[in-house]
Amino acid sequence: MTADPRAAADRRTFIPLDPSLAPPGTRAFRDAGGIPADRWHADQNGETLVPTHCCFCGVQCGMYLRVDHGGKVFGVEPRNHDINRMRLCPKGINAYQQVNHPDRLTAPLMRRSRDEEFREVSWEEALDFTVSEIKRIQQTYGNDAFGLLGGASLFSEKTYLVGKFARVALKSRHVDYNGRLCMVSAAGANKLAFGIDRAGNPFSDILLTDCLLIAGSNVGECFPVMTQYVWGARDRGATLIVVDPRETAIARTADIHVALKPGTDSAFFTSVLNVVIEEGLTDEKFLADHATGWEELKAKAAEYPPSRAAAICGIPAEQIVQVARAFARAPKAMAWHARGIEHHSQGVENCLSVINLCTATGHIGKPGAGYGTITGQGNGQGGREHGQKSDLLPGGRSIMNEEHRRQICEIWGIEESELPPAGTSMMEMVWQMQRREIRGLIGICNNPFVSLPNYRVVKEGYDTTEFHAQFDFFLSETAANAHVVFPVTTWAEDEGVMANAEARVVKHNKAQDPPPGVRTDTWVICELARRLGAGGKFDFPDSRSVFDELRIASAGTVNDYYGITYERLEETGGIAWPCPATDHPGTPRLFEDGKTYHPDGRIHLQVVEWHPPMDPYDDEHPMFLTTGRTVAHFLSGNQTRRLGALVERTPRPWAEIHPSHGFRNGEPVRVVTRRGSEVFPALVTEAIRPDTVFVPYHWPVPTAANALTIDALDPRSKIPEYKVCACRIEHAERIDEVPAPPVAPGHVAYPETQVSRTDPLPPTAPQGRGTSERS
User: Which residues does the annotated region (Disordered) include (predicted)?
Assistant: First the structure.
């Protein structure tokens, strides 16, 4: 690396720093001539920078992958994309390391029985066996005896293929995806209220707001780069309200932190609406012009005065009044939420209660005023738009709508009678596997052994299947239980699009060729379709050809991608749908004309009734367990638990508990629910409610938080109730060990990621007040 000649002159102007004032390491950096990265340039022969986006969360930060002269990814640089403006979080910085990781699968694995060991086989043998098992099961038990589960971290082109493959090649109604565990409550609420499933405002609108309400989202750890927008709003003087049982990093900086009891969100928001109404803070003109159902909602809100909600939520009644005044009186206010209010058996109602508040105060469809949902997975938004969800067809069409079915059948070239009806949700499919209604399964880009609740039920369901194949680039805990594992590409070895939390479609570019023996998901799906006799419907040589059909299949729908092309995405850096024509700029902000996507153009307000969680506390289980993510890991951890820097930062899960329980940091604490128990090191902090326990969920049994959670579902969205179940805590003798990630036969777990895995203590990084002690 050589320095820009201007840098020497700049260094001479640096003023020596007082070591008593400078952060650790700053003086050494400055004295050594350290300067901002943009003053340097690479001069390595043959090195190229490939512009793309991070593979992890729904922020979709722009980055450059560094590719050496041999065509291999070896590093990353932040990209000055307007989503992230040169910022990357710890996961983004380390994401490139998975591409050429020694744990990569490079040959198909196969066994004819789970009693056998895996062996590496040819693609021909693995494909032949898979197709023969699909045909055997379907000929014996019917087409619906075979199912398919996709994932919301796949490119949209691949999610389109998942839905089409299930219905056209498998001819099965049973297809769903792991976004069922993330965003479907928000999606259901958005469709009910607005007739469209996406955030109403871009991130940049946060910078314009006067009051920002964040509910159930640990932004600082789960969406770190999004924090820049929160800080930008704060710099302008915006009031920050955070609703979360834990005093997270973002809650610690809030003007108002509402530390409500888990499972009480809709009671809180309906009570806030009660105060808004009682104090005359509603926008009556906006309601009269743009909403339906207001009188019914007013009547229901009258049943939730602050005194009642305070008792339900375990917070002061005065805080409800304070939030109502701050939000309603602000000239411009916004509300964003995430899994904290969505992972409930009343998740749809929780989201609707936030929409009701925004609508009643007129904070909809304006710069700096609106409503948004923060997508968890990289393609959590796009992953549910084009057909891999059990009740949807491409373009967000309903599979129950006769006209929608006719339109898709015409595009796909099949008869309407050939298109199966709606299927069931991901968790319901597991129950059907238990009952032997589903006998075979293909899984793509998911790891239910870690991500689904109530592990005993999940393991029993998968063990009951007669055949199971899994696509992945690492051997996940779920894939390790399969009959066939297909080694497929990482995000850096293919191209495609994702839609981020703003519904901005961005393009990921291929940075290197896959290792020998590895195929793209697209190739595998199309090859299976060909061998099943549907090859003519799956003649897609690459992602671009799939995207061309996806654009046509979405044309004229609410989720219209027709005007989005790869070339336009490269030129613009991203386009928000709907975008009906190639000269259309996209739609970054919805409802600016006051109209929604319902036929009457109005917001359909919904009456919400709070009810207790499905797993209530009692004398035996007097506390609540809630789960969530950490900054270093992602979802089931199959990727991040293999990256040394991330494992070193957060090697294991912990139980976050209040000091009133008498534990010291690092002491073994057994968390017991009605589904079992596990022992974690205690992380003792005043930043959590005394009646609540928090455990992060990125690890497998015997340290899997989701093994303890309940498999109760929201009746409308079918999302599991991860965020609240009854528990108790006990002193224990020994902390449960974190298992190493599975690896292919003949491989040894990558030692770089194993060194700190056995650390018995909670993280050194403070999670909140009172957590700096490690003894």
Answer: 1-21, 738-775
- Number of Cβ within 10 Å of residue 737's Cβ equals 13
3-state secondary structure of 92: helix
What gap in Å lies between CA 391 and CA 420, rounded to an integer?
10
Phi, psi at residue 13, to the nearest 5°? -90, -5
Total residue count of the chain as it appears in this document:
775
pLDDT tens column, 226-244: 999 999 999 999 999 999 9
CA diameter of the chain: 80
Strands (E), 187-331: 211-215, 239-243, 256-258, 291-292
Within 465-616, residue ranges assigned H as helices are 521-531, 543-554, 566-572
> Which residue shows structure tokens 């009671």?
267
Bridge partners for 442 per DSSP: 148, 469
Q: What is the number of H-type helices and E-type strands within the chain?
A: 23, 30
Question: Please, are residues 282 and 360 in contact by the beta-carbon 8 Å criterion?
Answer: yes
Give strand ranges (E) for 59-217. 62-67, 73-78, 109-110, 119-120, 146-150, 175-177, 211-215
Task: Decide: 445 and 471 in contact? Cβ < 8 Å.
Answer: yes
On whether the CB atoms of residues 473 and 104 are closer than 8 A, the answer is yes
On whether the pTM is more than 0.90, the answer is yes
Q: Does residue 422 register a pLDDT over 70?
A: yes
Tell me the angle at which helices 521-531 and 123-141 cross, rounded to the nearest 10 degrees: 50
Q: Give the rounded distance of the alpha carbon of 310 from its chain centre.
A: 31
Q: Convert the pLDDT of each residue in 275-321 to its tens digit.
A: 999 999 999 999 999 999 999 999 999 999 999 999 999 999 999 99
The residue assigned the tokens 């595998």 is 524
For residue 715, the cross-strand partners are none
Contact call for residues 106 and 515 (beta carbons, < 8 A):
yes
- Are β-strands 676-684 and 668-673 bridged in parallel, bridged antiparallel, or unpaired? antiparallel
584-601 pLDDT tens trace: 999 999 999 999 999 999
Backbone angles phi, psi at 574, to 5 degrees: 140, 145
